[in-house]
User: Which sequence fits this backbone?
């Protein structure tokens, strides 16, 4: 189910950054920081970011394999 991300402003972060950071860490849900009513950046949990990066790496490697852009490694020496 899709839910709209939580949003805040840069001003609110200046005033209550600790509360906002704690909420992100607790809920693992990102918060979008708005500037002039437009999304500027996202604050998200570091572990969640690492998970997303790992998923993206797998998807990218699968796409490279599909396109035949991979090399077969026969030993650990081939990693270099």
Assistant:
């Amino acid at each position: 189910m899709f839910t709209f991300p939580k949003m805040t402003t840069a001003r609110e972060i200046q005033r209550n950054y600790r509360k906002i950071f704690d909420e992100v860490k607790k809920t693992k849900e990102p918060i979008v920081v708005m500037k002039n009513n437009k999304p500027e950046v996202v604050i998200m949990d570091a572990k969640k970011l690492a998970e997303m990066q790992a998923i993206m790496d797998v998807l990218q490697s699968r796409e490279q394999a599909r396109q035949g852009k991979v090399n077969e490694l026969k030993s650990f020496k081939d990693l270099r």
